[in-house]
């Protein structure tokens, strides 16, 4: 299935997208209306004409007319031959052109709370070529080439069909016959036209000339239709990169349709497409989708149905940064091939490509890496049954043999959300010290701190950057009667029980970028939905003092085994309360718990001391700890962390792993 990627293809894609966006910007500056269908068609037809000339084939039907200005047309036709001659250039141009509408759609959604108007503008991203090739080859394995028909129900610019054409020809079909086996559906008529010309020109390249009859068949088989509505014929293979749109972003009509026809896959548009592809395919499907359906709790029923529909043969965990032109962590994706005509209890070949930093690096790692093997039924006892292939058997077994954290600690459900943060949440230094509630170990108000406003503000756990053991106490929240009345009546607020307020325990960063980090929460504080809390239960380790029990649990949470287990439960950016509750915690004897607690208490105390050197921190006191002592203390704390890792590894009966990027040396406030 693997093949070394082109080292130039990704760079060409990035350059075409960038040039297209620059062309659009220049046209807008001249007052051209680049949203118009005529302008888009002129752009695509002109680019297709240039490609036809480079191929030495007929330009029939490729007159650009006057839809583009002379300046825009001259700029487009001056592009290097290496760009205009690429089979995928039209799709890349379409993605660059779509960036304008995508930006407008997301601005309206984020800034004004508007739902996306359609699935065509806000979700068009061109599939990386090597991913499409891998899916096409994988899905065609075992197919009957005498009758195979391939469909892309969200054809976009035609990337999947190009990959399928190449795979069919490699398998022995003549180019003309291979082209007749390809179908595409597309909601956006502009994208459908891009796909038609893309495929027609590639077939012409392989045949050495254009075939009008064959092109007429291509036009008839790549059509505009909504893939999620109406009856559909069967296809042996279905390949697609479906549009993504979450439940809250959908137009109301689309939400109702998915709820009525695609449950339990209705939570995202891409999930509904998975269901549709499985229903239409008779041999195999190959899809590039968001990773959430394989891990998140809200997709649990859909995940069960997905995995039960056939044998998951190939799983490429691409993670973030898989697309050129799209940065950030939110578009974390997987590509998978599933045999619909095979039993589901078969091993899956897994490539973990998440650490590669860009599309080219992911492609190279895919080509160079031998896949692991995973049988999904191994995770049958894991809550929610996520596709946790990265967990070795020595850790997976604890879901059967150990109690979940929910039995030894309380992790409040729901979201603690105050609302109106500009009014009720402030940096700690922006309010009078006498008005802040005492938080022993963190802050003590002045001895004469009575009077008006006393006790109005509480330190507020709001998550923050990577800070294990102690830290991120940057904010205070208004806890006056007036403020709490607002929280109780405001429809967007949600307060948990008062019994959690001011209670000593543990808090952690919800949005942790994949690195779980918990820290001591002193009494007197409150916590936010982004800095949730954990409270150890009294019956756990009854022979230990509260401080020791709290410290022992904190040590377990910040260990390598716990982080690996939590990451397997949910490899997305957020750690949900349900994930933390499900963490298996082996039974620990009091003697070992005391050793763990002693190490953790010394670590927490040392980290608190080091925060005295952090300018802006509530404990800042530059005279309290000279630099040489601070460096020695940090080195000592890392030694303690190493000793703690050995204790927790023994508890989980696994080998000790390096601290890597989870140690105190990467605590954001202490790294300098």
Describe this structure in words.
The chain is of the alpha/beta class and 672 residues long. The chain folds into 2 domains: 9-390, Vaccinia Virus protein VP39 (Rossmann fold), CATH 3.40.50; 409-666, no CATH class. It has 23 helices and 19 strands. It has a 9-stranded mixed β-sheet, sandwiched between helices. Strands 11-18-15-16 form a 4-stranded antiparallel β-sheet. The protein is elongated and about 90 Å long. It starts with 8 loop residues before the first helix and ends in a 20-residue tail after the last helix. Mean pLDDT is 89; it is low at 105-123.
Q: Which labels suit this protein?
A:
672 residues, alpha/beta, Rossmann fold, 9-stranded mixed β-sheet, 4-stranded antiparallel β-sheet, 23 helices, 40% helix, 12% strand, elongated, methyltransferase, nucleic acid binding, site-specific DNA-methyltransferase (adenine-specific), site-specific DNA-methyltransferase (adenine-specific) activity
